[in-house]
């Protein structure tokens, strides 16, 4: 019974950290530019496909470090894509109403799907976890897949790095002030356009990184872009606008509720996520935490 | 003169900041009551509590002898309270005329007359005529078709006053009605407001910074400092009140 | 009186366009193939869906991301009643569908509007909508994941005789008339005192509050009318598509009216209609371009949004205003 | 891999553009002479694209073959292609459009939801539909109508045949569980498999099977770990899985580290063909998979060998999905029926199809006149990952005579056990 409880908790954690990895970049862009980037999932997908292709270029079994290196490389590539998109699309979205950015990024999601299909084809693809992460640890009679642990660890590391950046470094604090009051930041001589671009590039790089790290988590198909996006939306809104800490907490809370709900009320799998989102927003209409933190 | 608005023991606080402390205040019918005080004294908060935008943590607000403490702003408007804002609030995407029509129709909706039925496609002829009449009265007739957003600062203030008065309130609360106006406009505004009070039988409650306006308008004066009322009464009495003087000019000046 | 900035010439041009579109829809079965007629029927319903949504979005300024829940509520109610009590007249099913949608809107609206606003409201309605979606997919009476199939087109009793709508293009014309009536109603609400009040409420809720308006009540009213009419559109679509699946309650279906409104222009009554037609046209034109349709649809959408931030109708009317203004200036110069 | 699929996409694009050029919306002619027009309706985008695309390839090869051999009744076959995006409303619109263009003979359809939706409007549109994959039992049971035909097997045949083989081969495995997506198709496969176990274990293994309540899963998700954990806790040894496509890949991939496939054996996969195996390659755990058509099971049949050769030539893929064979067979069925129904009129085509026996890559097939279900061999193969160039190998295959596992023809009546 205790073992069951632990197992479900662990699965909830895995889900939570997977969604947090996707949500981290989303909440960063949302916090600074107030653009709810629908296409974020699309770029996570591109990161995953790129990882697949790069890993297949290497011969023999892939080790963890090669895998990590590839994921970081994909983050860089998607980050560059982010720079291009910032210049061509987001640049123009600053002047228009918030809801218009929703449709523009929705269009970009469709474009991502079309692009992935053109390059990689419509067939399902699977990438196995790298050597060393394909097994499981045995804790008593509890099976813990090492890849699950890897996802959990990745989520925590990404969170800690982001949190350190935002709270402990100068550029992070500047970013906070831009999010709070771009006008005032501008008055104080901060190049806010550069900060906007930094946020977008960082957000996209995080999408690419999430795609790379999560590529072995599920099957790859051109529909992958839509798989995580609604969960990620829920997480960043419940967490509070642009709040990385909030998103982290929200991911954990929602992941646990969903995992235990799915196990103990199997007739309605997946419904608990939405009940939790609605319930929390009704209790705390501005999310758990607010402001970029 | 009977009491129109009565405030009894009102307190208001934000989680870490006490804003209003034990406010007791009476507004008599027909008077022009001005509240003054330094920035951050709690004038705007007091206004919000009186108008129903925010609710006091404790204490009551009576209007025409009835407890209105629990009523929302829109309900207090139904009872006859109107207000303007420091920065004039208008429907900026609509024309000046449409703004006035919206106010007049709202009045009719409150009175539940045929002019205020929600399913009415266009405003009735009477409403449109009245709107033009009122605009003419305020010298805004030539701006009828302009977007409210394109009006000058003074015109915006004037239009907002028109809109508020169009609802025929008994008590009108003006939050710094002359803020940002040129001196000559100020004088005109004092004149208009005084004329209105007399012709329409209005009771006025204002906040104001400009002393010329304060003494041009006030029949009674209340001084608010750090969320407390430190003096209230005839303007000249208040002017001579030692506590007020000590707060404004420092301790020594009070005896001068 | 002059409201808005439409000059008479642009107004008449817009009227001509509306008339032409109505004419195309009305004569479609005479010259187009069945597939196109079917699509046109869907588009008509989607127009009502989008315009009723825009009552909240464009007029009142609330973004709901759960509008599909109302559409599905109407469709499922009407289809389910058609099975449970087939002897009752079809119009009762439609009205019941609308009523259920309105009630659901009341429920969701009261809860969501009381608590959240802005993007939080959008995500709250999204979550509530997904709840409805999941519950429909798990309900045996509603056919679970596979939906209700083989929905019959009705025979309506017209007092003087019965009209069998299952024959030929009759249901299409019925749909045309029904959607026309619903759009007429929405037009009335949009342009009438209520609509003007809601528009004012969007621009400055504080000001309208001091006009003695219970802001939350009116937002709820907008939400309920919007939900009710959306549900009516759903009720109408069931016998047309003859199958309904939970997909019509999914969040991606809620994204459609937002898409139409922004594409066409949310600030104008007919904007969402233009958006729906343009989007359907785009999908129709790319339907055989297997493999690249996503690229074309996505690309076109992106270009339209970036080039026309006011939507198609908004941008066109801005253009028209500029043109007529230039024309007037030129006229003035000439006369001078 | 990447290069071939891109070439495929371009080829598909070519077909699409040609079809688009043919399919002008204002053409409303139903030709009494000239070529017979056949409408392909299938998922060419969206989640089921990788199923619809090979189906279309099979259809195209059949049309080319028949036309190269002089056509039917001296008339050529003409193919018009439409995408249903696996959405019922898009499917119905596309079907109506095809009919409007004179294609009243429709075939294809991957998704059951689309099949049910299109099937419901066939009579109204005066068209015939032969589906090549849609497996919902409702189509030939409670929602049956005379204008609908199924060219392939159904869950009753498929899953009972699978249970048959299990009872025969793994008589000692008497405890069974399932991982079932919670939709009609999923539940229906489980009911049929459950029925098969109860029928064949006592008969063939002389043992009563103990069957657990199946684990019902979500679909289209990214996390199946909790479902896998539930299945691991289940005492059952044999497992039946009917998760599909990407969901199956995700589930298998997440099940691997738990040692699921070491603890549970045998695994029966309802219908994934080679889709999942080709994706997972060396990591693919051994399982028994149901298939519409497997070329290796019918070598020696000239139609089979020729189809397999052409397909492998075109795509470079060695392990071909069954959808190809079914698309091919559906065209063959129409061609055969048209020999007697040379008018091409719907009523005549229906009459000719009822009870029709025709040649297919799986040998002779007969369409039952009563409920329009085809009697055909049911195919199963045992596949596992391998360290060869393809990454997978077929260890063995079994073909069960369809007539021995088929359901009684009861059109209009819901299937009950």
From TrEMBL, chain A:
Segments crossing the lipid bilayer: 12-33, 40-58, 64-85, 147-166, 187-214, 220-239, 246-265, 271-292
Domain of life: Bacteria
Keyword Membrane attributed: yes
Pfam families to which the protein is assigned, alphabetical: BPD_transp_2
Protein's membrane topology: Multi-pass membrane protein
InterPro entries per the UniProt record, alphabetical: ABC_transp_permease, BCAA_transport_permease
Keyword presence, Transmembrane helix: yes
Chief location of this protein within or outside the cell: membrane
Localization of this protein: Cell membrane
Keyword annotations of the record: Amino-acid transport, Cell membrane, Membrane, Transmembrane, Transmembrane helix, Transport
Similarity section: Belongs to the binding-protein-dependent transport system permease family. LivHM subfamily.
Protein name according to UniProt: Branched-chain amino acid ABC transporter permease
Annotated organism of origin: Neorhizobium phenanthreniclasticum
From TrEMBL, chain B:
GO molecular function: ATP binding
Organism: Neorhizobium phenanthreniclasticum
Keywords recorded for this protein, A-Z: ATP-binding, Nucleotide-binding, Transport
Family membership: Belongs to the ABC transporter superfamily.
The keyword Transport belongs to this UniProt entry's keyword annotation: yes
Full protein name: ABC transporter ATP-binding protein
Domain ABC transporter: 5-251
UniProt xrefs under Pfam families: ABC_tran, BCA_ABC_TP_C
Top-level lineage group: Bacteria
Automatic annotation (TrEMBL), chain C:
Principal localisation: membrane
Topology of this chain in the membrane: Multi-pass membrane protein
Compartments where found: Cell membrane
Keywords on record: Cell membrane, Membrane, Transmembrane, Transmembrane helix
Matches recorded under Pfam families: BPD_transp_2
Membrane spanning stretches: 12-31, 37-55, 62-82, 88-112, 119-136, 171-190, 221-241, 247-266, 273-290, 296-320
Name this protein carries in UniProt: Branched-chain amino acid ABC transporter permease
Annotated source species: Neorhizobium phenanthreniclasticum
From TrEMBL, chain D:
Annotated Leucine-binding protein domain residues: 35-384
Gene3D superfamilies xref list: 3.40.50.2300
Domain of life: Bacteria
Keyword annotations of the record: Amino-acid transport, Signal, Transport
InterPro entries xref list: BCAA_transport, Leu-bd, Leu_Ile_Val-bd, Peripla_BP_I, TAT_signal, TAT_signal_bac_arc
Family stated for the protein in its record: Belongs to the leucine-binding protein family.
Protein name (database record): ABC transporter substrate-binding protein
Organism per entry: Neorhizobium phenanthreniclasticum
């Amino acid at each position: 019974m205790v073992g069951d409880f632990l197992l479900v908790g662990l699965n909830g954690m895995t889900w939570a950290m997977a969604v947090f990895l996707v949500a981290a970049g989303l909440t960063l862009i949302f916090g600074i530019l107030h653009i709810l980037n629908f296409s974020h999932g699309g770029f996570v997908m591109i990161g995953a496909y790129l990882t697949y292709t790069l890993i297949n270029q290497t011969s023999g079994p892939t080790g963890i470090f090669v895998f990590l290196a590839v994921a970081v490389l994909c983050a860089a590539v998607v980050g560059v894509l982010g720079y291009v998109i910032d210049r061509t699309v987001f640049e123009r979205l600053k002047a228009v109403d918030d809801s218009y950015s929703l449709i523009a990024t929705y269009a970009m999601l469709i474009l991502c799907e079309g692009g992935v299909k053109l390059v990689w084809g419509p067939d399902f693809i699977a990438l196995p976890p790298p050597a060393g992460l394909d097994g499981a640890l045995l804790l008593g009679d509890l099976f813990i897949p090492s890849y699950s642990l890897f996802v959990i660890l990745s989520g925590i590391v990404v969170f800690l790095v982001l949190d350190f950046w935002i709270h402990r470094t100068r550029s992070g604090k500047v970013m906070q002030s831009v999010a709070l009051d771009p006008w005032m930041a501008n008055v104080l001589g901060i190049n806010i356009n550069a900060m906007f671009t930094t946020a977008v590039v960082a957000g996209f790089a995080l999408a690419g990184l999430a795609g790379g790290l999560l590529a072995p988590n599920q099957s790859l198909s051109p529909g992958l872009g839509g798989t995580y996006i609604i969960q990620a939306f829920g997480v960043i809104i419940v967490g509070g606008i642009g709040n990385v800490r909030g998103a982290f907490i929200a991911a954990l809370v929602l992941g646990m509720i969903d995992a235990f709900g799915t196990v103990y009320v199997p007739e309605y799998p997946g419904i608990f996520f939405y009940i939790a989102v609605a319930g929390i927003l009704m209790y705390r209409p501005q999310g758990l935490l607010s402001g970029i933190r | 003169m009977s009491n129109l608005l009565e405030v009894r023991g009102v307190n208001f606080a934000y989680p870490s900041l006490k804003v209003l402390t034990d406010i007791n205040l009476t507004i008599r019918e027909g008077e022009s009551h001005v509240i003054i005080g330094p920035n951050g004294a709690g004038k705007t908060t007091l206004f919000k509590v009186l108008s129903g935008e925010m609710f006091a943590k404790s204490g009551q607000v009576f209007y025409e002898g009835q407890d209105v403490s629990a009523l929302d702003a829109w309900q207090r408007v139904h009872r006859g309270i109107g207000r303007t804002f420091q920065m004039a609030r208008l429907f900026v995407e609509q024309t000046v005329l449409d703004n006035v029509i919206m106010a007049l129709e709202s009045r009719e909706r409150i009175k539940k007359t045929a002019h205020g039925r929600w399913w009415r496609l266009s405003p009735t002829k009477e409403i449109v005529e009245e709107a033009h009449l009122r605009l003419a009265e305020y010298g805004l007739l030539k701006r009828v078709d302009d977007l409210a957003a394109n009006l000058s600062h003074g015109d915006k203030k004037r239009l907002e006053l028109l809109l508020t008065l169009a609802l025929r309130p008994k008590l009108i609360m003006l939050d710094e009605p002359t803020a940002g106006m040129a001196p000559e406009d100020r004088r005109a505004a004092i004149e208009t407001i005084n004329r209105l009070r007399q012709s329409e039988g209005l009771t006025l409650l204002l906040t104001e910074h400009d002393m010329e306006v304060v003494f041009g308008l006030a029949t009674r004066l209340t001084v608010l400092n750090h969320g407390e009322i430190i003096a209230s009464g005839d303007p000249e009495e208040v002017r001579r009140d030692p506590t007020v003087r000590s707060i404004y000019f420092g301790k020594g000046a009070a005896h001068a | 009186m002059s409201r808005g900035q439409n000059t008479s010439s642009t107004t008449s041009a817009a009227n001509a366009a509306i008339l032409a579109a109505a004419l195309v829809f009305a004569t479609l079965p005479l010259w187009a193939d069945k597939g196109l007629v079917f699509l046109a029927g869907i588009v008509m319903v989607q127009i009502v869906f989008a315009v009723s949504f825009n009552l909240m979005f464009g007029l009142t300024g609330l973004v709901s991301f759960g509008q599909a829940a109302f559409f599905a509520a109407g469709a499922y109610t009407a289809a389910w009643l058609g099975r449970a009590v087939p002897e009752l007249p079809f119009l009762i099913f439609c009205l019941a569908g609308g009523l259920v949608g309105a009630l659901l809107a009341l429920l969701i609206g009261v809860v969501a509007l009381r608590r959240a606003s802005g993007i939080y409201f959008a995500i709250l309605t999204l979550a509530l909508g997904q709840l409805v979606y999941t519950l429909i997919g798990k309900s045996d009476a509603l056919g679970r994941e596979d939906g209700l199939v083989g929905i019959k087109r009705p025979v309506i009793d017209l007092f003087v005789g019965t009209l069998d709508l299952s024959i030929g293009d009759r249901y299409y014309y019925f749909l045309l008339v029904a959607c026309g009536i619903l759009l007429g109603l929405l037009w009335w609400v949009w342009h009438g005192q209520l609509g003007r009040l809601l528009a004012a409420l969007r621009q400055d809720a504080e000001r309208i509050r001091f006009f003695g308006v219970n802001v939350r009540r009116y937002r709820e009213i907008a939400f309920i009318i919007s939900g009710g009419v959306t549900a009516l559109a759903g009720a109408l679509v069931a016998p047309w598509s003859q199958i309904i699946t939970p997909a019509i309650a999914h969040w991606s279906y809620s994204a459609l009216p937002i898409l139409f409104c922004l594409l066409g222009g949310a600030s104008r009554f007919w904007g969402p209609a233009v958006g729906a037609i343009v989007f359907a046209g785009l999908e129709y034109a790319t339907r055989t371009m297997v493999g690249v349709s996503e690229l074309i649809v996505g690309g076109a959408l992106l270009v339209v949004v970036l080039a026309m931030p006011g939507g198609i109708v908004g941008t066109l009317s801005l253009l028209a205003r500029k043109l007529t203004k230039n024309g007037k200036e030129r006229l003035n110069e000439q006369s001078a | 891999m990447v290069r071939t699929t891109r070439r495929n996409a371009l080829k598909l694009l070519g077909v699409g553009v040609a079809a688009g050029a043919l399919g002008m919306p204002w053409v409303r002619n139903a030709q009494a002479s000239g070529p017979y027009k056949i409408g392909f309706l299938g998922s060419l985008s969206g989640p089921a694209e990788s199923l619809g695309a090979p189906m279309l390839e099979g259809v195209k090869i059949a049309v080319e073959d028949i036309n190269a051999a002089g056509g039917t009744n001296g008339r050529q076959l003409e193919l018009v292609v439409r995408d249903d995006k696996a959405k019922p409303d898009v499917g119905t619109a596309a079907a109506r459009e095809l009919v409007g263009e004179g294609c009243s003979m429709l075939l294809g359809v991957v998704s059951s939801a689309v099949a049910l939706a299109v099937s419901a409007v066939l009579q109204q549109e005066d068209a015939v539909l032969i589906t090549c994959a849609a497996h919902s039992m409702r189509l030939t049971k409670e929602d049956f109508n005379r204008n609908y035909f199924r060219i392939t097997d159904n869950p009753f045949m498929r899953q009972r045949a699978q249970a048959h083989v299990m009872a025969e081969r793994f008589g000692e495995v008497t405890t069974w569980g399932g991982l079932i997506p919670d939709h009609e198709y999923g539940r229906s496969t489980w009911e049929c498999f459950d029925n098969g176990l109860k029928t064949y274990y006592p008969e063939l293994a002389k043992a009563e099977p103990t069957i657990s309540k199946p684990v019902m899963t979500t679909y289209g998700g990214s996390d199946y770990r909790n479902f896998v954990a539930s299945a691991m806790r289940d005492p059952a040894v044999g497992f039946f899985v009917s998760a599909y496509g990407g969901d199956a890949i995700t589930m298998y991939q997440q099940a691997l580290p738990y040692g699921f496939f070491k603890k549970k054996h045998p695994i029966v996969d309802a219908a994934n063909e080679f889709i999942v195996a080709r994706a997972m390659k060396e990591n693919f755990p051994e399982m028994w998979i149901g298939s519409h058509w497997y070329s290796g099971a019918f070598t020696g049949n000239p139609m089979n060998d020729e189809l397999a050769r052409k397909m492998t030539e075109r795509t470079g893929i060695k392990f071909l999905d069954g959808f190809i064979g079914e698309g091919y067979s559906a065209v063959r069925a129409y061609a055969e029926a048209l020999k007697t129904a040379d008018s091409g009129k719907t009523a005549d085509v229906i009459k000719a199809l009822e009870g029709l026996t025709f040649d297919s890559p799986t040998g002779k097939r007969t369409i039952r006149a009563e409920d329009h279900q085809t009697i055909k061999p049911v195919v199963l193969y045992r596949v596992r990952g391998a360290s060869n160039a393809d990454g997978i190998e077929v260890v063995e295959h079994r073909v069960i005579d369809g007539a021995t596992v088929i359901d009684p023809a009861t059109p209009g009546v819901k299937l009950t056990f």
